[in-house]
Specification:
The structure is a homotetramer of 360-residue chains. Chain A is α/β, with parallel strands linked by helices and 360 residues long. In chain A, 35% of the residues lie in helices and 29% in strands. Chain A is built from 11 helices and 15 strands. Chains in contact: A-B, A-C, A-D, B-C, B-D, C-D.
């Protein structure tokens, strides 16, 4: 593994560690996974299916979780002590699949120990933490990847392609709804739980630095919002809106994206036809007075491009391994994670002040 | 028609007009309709189908509109001069189906001339105008009905029933989406065009005085918002949210209403099963620490109550005629119209200031 | 009306009738409508909206029906005596919108009196009747149009276009489902009530002479089938299947059409995206043994062509008027009506004998 | 395992086999699985998750399939020789998950060797084979279970409950559509591939001995039907219809069931609301003449009962293990398998003769 030694070279230790010597020509990544709750099993399953990757160890403080892991993978090394994973010389990269408030400490230790880091979304609890981790990884020449899984879904990749190749034309808006019943989180609001998906997708599609955030919402059980409506303003006049709700009786995963030339609906619930591109539009010509607006509408065919059905996490983890082995920076790196955290902080702040605008 | 003479009594004319004398025992309402554009024909068709009602005259300044009216109703009296309608002694009530900026002047004249008034939504351009009309109608003992048509739809009546009889339990939120392509209005934003529907329904269902409004959105063609996201705060912690958009490629008319005991989805696009009531819910018990939340979910049957399919406008106009003939105040009276106009003013003000909270 | 005189020329009467003399240069068609039940009002409304057409008289034996007609069209001539319509010298064409068992007598009289005839589907009760009417119309040079309304819908015209221009490739099958609750007919089974739609569309799309029919089904209330499943065999190996049912709790109007190159779904319930064309297919290459089949699947984009939303009946009746004025034979003429009646007869016969194959 | 010894007692061998002695008090079932293609992995995964069950060996002639098995279950015994599984003294039950033409030979050997048998649907290629296996199992007191998985789905169990408790009232019809693109089978038509699902469900719900079958359809690539329409007649006048098609661009899994008191739609594609029960119905009273039918319609609420989401195969295999350990006959036993095979034979025969009725 080429990046192992280079990380060691850049570290404060002048001497390469034992394992980096031993694995000078390594062409695979040895992974430790911390956290085997809801999402961890998917991480382990996908890492194991990769060719150039080996899962060395799985850690969870919950004995039941470890028992489940053992039943599925009898041969796997299991531990309740995360320091074991963070310190192991046999591990090149650590996947952190734990509650957000633990991300910073775990990732920091992992980076300090020369491990590449894969962190579940959202990256960290604060943007200050995110910045610190980014700097640390940079100094030690290690990779950080933030698990913005949706960016690797066939649907989002297709949307990005349609935006990039100009099919939609300049964008007017991005409006995403992500609602369902539960699961209530103990430590974070619905903003920190669900909105990272939409914000990371928005960041990936809109590709513009947002200038302000307004968020409203409500909390009906404790002091954490269980529903929130986030508006993000962009300099180019793109309007983004995100509706997240833990109290919806139905599951909705719909994103409308309006462009000058085409409009798009992404319905992630649909098993087959997730994306529809509408040849619809409006043209308004200003006449002589305010009542002389000439409005013309265009309404043509609908097109449902085929969307790659490969599991997003498979692609993402494969990309993580590639980035490590080839020493390249992932697109969903710490900086991408930081951009999302900043929006989350702003949204939470705005929400607490009943929609006060937060200029970024 | 009892209210005819009383209107005359209260008017500045001390002498009852010829027709009010003649119609002392009138049991039907003679209507004049001003405006025969998009909505006017529905008004005329429905008034004509009523038993205790007669359409006397239709007015529109647009010759093409009048031609269409003549083709459908060869015997109808048509005019391009609205003063003719407003002054006619043969007309008891005037339906004003014109752009909102004309409502006040027309309604004022109509009331001054002793006519009952049916006004398309939104009631007026300003709350000051609305107040003035309400006072005038009160003074002259005339009826004002604001055309909040949806309140007479089977779906909204059923929802109100389910809220009133306690089926849903105390409400948590009201979240409504009303988006489609166009029709752009020349004089008002999407807020004034589409949101009156949702705000009047919210007002009818939630039945609580809202305390503040936050609205965000965007305008992409001129300085009128073509998409808007309105949050309404209520003292009892009900959160209302309204998403209106003229730039959507698909038509969506969906309202989610979350209650403690049941949750409801109203999809007005569905031809048959418009309302679904979900036996779903969340219960959160606070444990000893923040991490001790005990959350339990309930997910049971779904129920689709039969919804009366009678055309809403038929019921509404029948009710208008009843209110006139029986001298009773309609529930969708001027005061209801004013409540909506106040919310529209607040939303527009908030929107222009990028989401500044407007306390009502 | 050019065809008036020519009809007269070809008739056994050597003397042009009074009205044909009077209207030598007529450029509009004067229509009488017999039957003002469920469908008649649509016929009247659409005829009236046409430019080169005038509705002279409406006939129904039911006083209530006539009262409804009078309310909508106070100026229209109404009668309960159909001979009045059939004999009137002021009428050029008769629309017969009555139960099927009356079609033959009415159409025959109309043709004998020199009137063009528009007949609701199904054309006649027997193919012998249909043949007789076709011959009569031919002899008198009059037009017969059978009301296969769906052929004029945007969806069916688009499908025909996609078949004709080779988009779908050679067809494999046509599978249509038309089910809903009721309306039970008194005199005919669900086969004669609903299947004419599907059979006429099939005839229009497949454009091949069917060779045999098998029909099964059931009757649960009287001796008329309330559900039926009709298979039509074609020489070129196209398989057609039609599922009609009066006892379904949901309304389904879906037609699948499989072609070698593309497959199509027409969902007539959808308000906007009625047709979807799938770039899907199968290729099977025979290997050396039966177990060496090489099957490859193709699954690409979906395409929803824009479908003209003009009311089908408007186009159809306009076409009827055109055919009369321009002396041309309609595509949905008596022969088309006869082809459908033959299939209905075969289906009914097969159904009664529990699926015995009827070779045509 | 109690049934092991009893099987031995009933066998022609007077001496209990070694393993039956050894496992006199066995309370778990040791399973061998033959076939690890498309469905086999689900069988293995589910057997492994059961408490009282152990997967001893997996067999497949395809090396690639075994490699996949090894990757997932490194510790599992794998073999390409099915006789090894059929003969192993360490195996109590054999799951046969292979092409239908191999079922008879494999099941026969397994039963002869004293193994209980779980066979994928359809049970056998002929009813004669099915009868022979049933008799053999009976003689040796062994269990046969035919993998009619759907009978264990929450949806089908709920439907059965609604029929059994009289909610639907007497049934009028059962109409099932199961279409999608592929997968073409090499050795059997779409009838033998897809219809076993619908026929086994029909058998489970209708619970009446069918009296005749008519099947039509088409084949477009080789001499095996790729689409088929099967009608099953029942003495009580219930009409069953099944539409199976390998050439559909869209996946449809919809069953309509009409009863006198309620009507039901089961849409298995829906993730959440699979079943809807409609309070709809028709009542027809015969008047004095054929035209005096008095028809009344009932259209009330819709109800979506909650459906258990447990994986059907989990329940089915658990039930298989229970039946073995407790010595009870499964409801989906050889006789149930035989009933379905008889219908498949009849359908195939009818289909080949273009819909000739096959009386059972």
């Amino acid at each position: 593994m080429s990046s192992g030694p280079s990380a060691a070279d850049l570290s404060d230790s002048a001497f390469p560690s034992r394992e980096s010597r031993a694995r000078n020509n390594a062409d695979s990544v040895r992974v430790g996974v911390i956290g085997y709750g809801y999402w961890g099993p998917n991480i382990v399953r996908n890492f194991r299916a990769l060719d150039r990757c080996e899962v060395i160890s799985v850690c969870d403080r919950n004995a039941k979780a470890l028992k489940r892991a053992q039943k599925t993978y009898p041969a796997l090394h299991l531990t309740t002590d995360f320091t074991e994973v963070l310190a192991s010389p046999d591990i090149d990269a650590v996947a952190i699949v734990t509650p957000v408030w633990t991300h910073f400490e775990l990732a920091k230790k992992a980076l300090e120990n020369g491990k590449h880091v894969f962190v579940e979304k959202p990256f960290t609890s604060t943007s200050a933490q995110a910045t610190q981790l980014i700097e640390l990884a940079c100094k030690k020449n290690l990779r950080i990847m933030v698990d913005h899984t949706f960016l690797f879904s066939g649907a989002v990749r297709k949307i990005r392609e349609l935006v990039d190749n100009g099919t939609l034309g300049p964008l007017y808006y991005f409006d995403s709804t992500r609602v369902n019943l539960g699961l209530f989180q103990h430590d974070v609001s619905v903003v920190w739980d669900l909105a990272p998906h939409d914000l990371s997708i928005m960041d990936y599609i809109v590709r513009e630095r947002p200038e302000a955030v307004v968020a409203t919402g409500g909390n009906h059980f404790n002091d954490l919002a269980d529903m929130a409506f986030i508006t993000v303003y962009f300099p180019s006049n793109i309007t983004a809106h995100i509706n997240v709700n833990w109290l919806s009786p139905v599951k909705v995963r719909t994103t409308l994206i309006g462009g000058r030339d085409k409009m798009l609906v992404w319905n992630d619930i649909e098993p087959d036809e997730k994306i529809k591109v509408y040849d619809k539009g409006v043209e308004i010509t200003n006449g002589q007075s305010v009542y002389d607006l000439l409005v013309s509408y265009r309404s043509g065919d609908v097109w449902g491009p085929k969307v790659d059905a490969t599991e997003a996490l498979t692609l993402e983890l494969g990309y993580f391994v590639d980035c490590i082995l080839e020493g390249k920076a992932p697109s969903n790196d710490g900086a991408a994670g930081l951009r999302v955290v900043r929006l989350l902080e702003a949204a939470e702040e705005s929400l607490k002040d009943r929609g006060r605008i937060i200029v970024l």
